[in-house]
Design a protein that fits this description.
- The chain is an alpha+beta fold.
- It contains 4 helices and 7 strands.
- The protein is 27% helix and 31% strand.
- The strands form 3 sheets. A 3-stranded antiparallel β-sheet has the order 3-2-7, with helices on one face. A two-stranded antiparallel ribbon has the order 1-4.
- A hairpin with a 5-residue loop joins strand 2 and strand 3.
- It starts with 12 loop residues before the first strand and ends with a helix.
Length: 121
């Protein structure tokens, strides 16, 4: 019995990355963040399960990242250059507000965001 070496299995490759919509509630509250995910890529290149590895700190952003990534398409992993197989891959979704988005945020959220930006410089 022989084990398959990791080098014999290719990594899934992203071929279609649709934009992930920014949740309206997070915009209103001026929440931004990065979501790190583990994505199960099915043998046909579609996305199966998606797990949050590192939260943005906002449930709206995390849920949007999961839903958005499920629309992405991958070139699936292959074993020894042959049959496609399911495999996991990491993904990251960054939610960053534009100046136009900030105009839609509540005044309190605008002040909090600019205070956060100022304190990190």
């Amino acid at each position: 019995m022989s084990a398959i070496a990791a080098a014999d299995i290719t990594t899934p490759e992203l071929v279609e990355r649709k934009p992930v919509p920014f949740p309206a509630e997070a915009k209103k509250l001026a929440h931004e963040g990065v979501v790190d995910l583990r994505v199960w890529v099915n043998p046909d290149g579609t996305v199966g399960d998606v797990v949050v590895l590192r939260s943005s700190g906002d449930a709206h952003l995390d849920k949007a990242a999961i839903a958005g990534v499920k629309s992405w398409k991958y070139k699936p992993s292959r074993r020894d250059g042959g049959d496609a197989i399911g495999n996991t891959v990491g993904a990251q979704v960054r939610f960053q507000l534009s100046d136009a988005d900030m105009e839609l945020a509540t005044p309190q959220a605008q002040l909090q965001r600019y205070a956060r930006l100022w304190s990190t410089t």
